[in-house]
Structure formats: structure tokens, C-alpha cells
Design a protein that fits this description.
This protein has a single domain, classed as 3-Layer(aba) Sandwich (Rossmann fold), CATH 3.40.50. By secondary structure, the protein is α/β, with parallel strands linked by helices. The strands form two sheets. A seven-stranded mixed sheet has the order 5-4-3-6-7-9-8, with helices on both faces. The chain contains nine helices and nine strands. The protein is globular.
């Protein structure tokens, strides 16, 4: 009798899990943190995440009339900023795989007056439900590290970009070795889970988020992955000594 193959595995933070189970586990994390997501971001970063996102929006160079896809849109802060730049003749698709986060974002976008040029779509970045050559720009902030198959997601993004279009990925990354990196490790694994426990009542989810950052490919490796997927002129910008990095690539 033939022994069935062992299920493929991948990382969920520092834990190895079955590849086909990671999406469910990640969904559980974001179902748990959705209600306090914005508050926790402000507490965890002392508000600096707003500056990081503003830099990413500036680098996206969105112009009036363009079609934009914001992946891992979460509570909609980047989609809101992009919609202002795309204007009444443009459109932003705010997409997220997690229904709880997407519903929270949709409500907040409506409250901000973005009912006309933003559409919310539940979608998996690995198999985007859009036609080829649909978007002038794709953004993804703090979401790529949670994707099970990053190569599949990058290929899917390239497919739906128009020639000349650009991808911009804002993600936690690997800080330059030194005192800041040491303090960052201490903060990530000691302070961050404690804040999650006290404020959100969920230590485990925030421990996973810290671990997922460490398991994310370093800057040069992610750049190489983008190039392998077919993106051209790929570059990255380290921000806050590399605590976050902004990657850009173009479809020729």
C-alpha cells in the first residue's frame, strides 16, 4: 500500500503548519484584532505608522483618473488617501482577504465620504479576481508577510497591472544591525505581546504578528522575488533604519 505524501508545510510565525491551514490561522488572527486594529497600530508604533503610510502613498505617485488596487486594505486608511489622489474620475479597489477587516474598512471609508470612487472587494492576493491589465498601480501595506504563497501573489499582481504600472509594497522588514535592532527585538517579543494582552485581550495574535515580521524575507530577498515574478526596475527604500521598507517594481 502506498503511503500518502506528507502535507506541505509553511511558517505561521515561528510555528510550522500545513500550507493549506495557514490562511485559516491568519484569518483567525485578524478576526480577533479587527475591532482594535487602528488603536493598536497607534500604540505599537507611537503613531509613526501614519508617517510610513504617507510616504508610501507619495511614492505611489497616483494621478487623477487612474485605477488603483489597494491590497490588504484593512481599515482603509491608505485606500482613503489614494482615492483623494485618484479623484472623481479615478477608482480605488480596496481589497482584503479577511471579511472582518474589510467590513471595518468599508464602514470607515463610507464615514469619510468615499462612497463614489472606492469599491470594497474580498479577494485573495494569490488569485486576484480581476482582468489582465486592469490597474495603473497596486499597493499593499503590511499584508504580504501574511500571504501563504508570496510568489503566487506577486505573479497575480503583475498579471492585473497595466504595462507601465507599478507595484508598491510597504512592509515591516529587517533593521540594520546595531542598537536599534536589539531594542526592536526586545520591544517586539516582550512589549508588543504585553500591549496586545492588556489593550486587546489577545497576547497570542500580537506574538504571531511579531514572529511573522522575523519570518518575512529581508529586503534584498524580496526585491529578488519581485524580479523573478517579472517586475522591472525593482528598488527598495529603508525607513526607520529598516524597521520598515518600501519596495517598488514596474510592469514593462
Amino acid at each position: 500500500m502506498t503511503t500518502p505524501p506528507e502535507p506541505q508545510s509553511t511558517h505561521f510565525g515561528f510555528e510550522q503548519v500545513a500550507t493549506n491551514d495557514k490562511a485559516r490561522r491568519v484569518r483567525g488572527v485578524f478576526d480577533s484584532v479587527a475591532v482594535r486594529y487602528d488603536l493598536m497600530n497607534d500604540l505599537m508604533s507611537l503613531g509613526v505608522h501614519r508617517l510610513w503610510k504617507r510616504m508610501a502613498v507619495d511614492l505611489a505617485e497616483v494621478r487623477p483618473g487612474q485605477q488603483i488596487l489597494d491590497l490588504a486594505a484593512g481599515t482603509g486608511d491608505i485606500a482613503s488617501a489614494l482615492a483623494k489622489r485618484a479623484g472623481a474620475t479615478g477608482r480605488v479597489i480596496a481589497a482584503d482577504i479577511n471579511a472582518a477587516m474589510l467590513n471595518m474598512g468599508r464602514d470607515r471609508l463610507i464615514d469619510r465620504g468615499h462612497a463614489n470612487n472606492i469599491v470594497c472587494v474580498q479577494a485573495n492576493a494569490e488569485c486576484l479576481p480581476f482582468a489582465d491589465n486592469s490597474f495603473d498601480c497596486i499597493t499593499m501595506a503590511f499584508g504580504l508577510r501574511n500571504v501563504t504563497d508570496k510568489s503566487a501573489a506577486l505573479a497575480s499582481m503583475l498579471r492585473v497591472l497595466r504595462p507601465g504600472g507599478r507595484l508598491l509594497v510597504l512592509e515591516f522588514s529587517h533593521p540594520t544591525p546595531g542598537p536599534v535592532a536589539a531594542l526592536y527585538d526586545l520591544y517586539s517579543f516582550r512589549v508588543l505581546p504585553l500591549i496586545g494582552k492588556v489593550v486587546a485581550g489577545d497576547e497570542g495574535s500580537y506574538r504571531y504578528l511579531a514572529e511573522s515580521i522575523r519570518m518575512h524575507p529581508p529586503q534584498s530577498e524580496l526585491q529578488a522575488m519581485m524580479e523573478t515574478a517579472g517586475f522591472a526596475h525593482c528598488t527598495y527604500l529603508n525607513v526607520s533604519t529598516g524597521i520598515v521598507a518600501i519596495h517598488r517594481g514596474y510592469k514593462l
